Hints:
Shape: flat
Distance between the termini: 48 Å
Strand content: under 5%
Helix content: over 70%
Keywords: Membrane, Transmembrane, Transmembrane helix
Amino acid sequence: MSLHDRLRPWHALMVAVFVLGSGLSLFRAGDYAVAALFEAVVSGLFAVVVFQFTVGNLWGYAVEYRNAGGRWTDPVFVAPFAVALALAALVAVWTGEPVSGAWAGFWVFAVAAALLAVGVSFVAGYRNPEA
């Protein structure tokens, strides 16, 4: 199997995130010393981890909902996104820091999706399987 067959667009996206994270770190440092290069590599790797964690969780949520028979246009599916985006915008405007808004939005999404998953499992448990 050639390398081209094993590389997917997801890998290219992770490389792009790594290059962007490393490049921003080097740009902020304004220096190309060994310590700055090491810090840039660590920053790039951290950016990849954060990217995989957030995008991976969002993608997993979407795929699992779809595999359970839902559609991505269902209000139940869209609700955690809507709540998270609304709160993220509110926190970003209130604090004046977009990063705080994004952080709050992510955790609100995680809690809302978890509560929704528990609620759906609870309701599905009481459904008549013969209906």
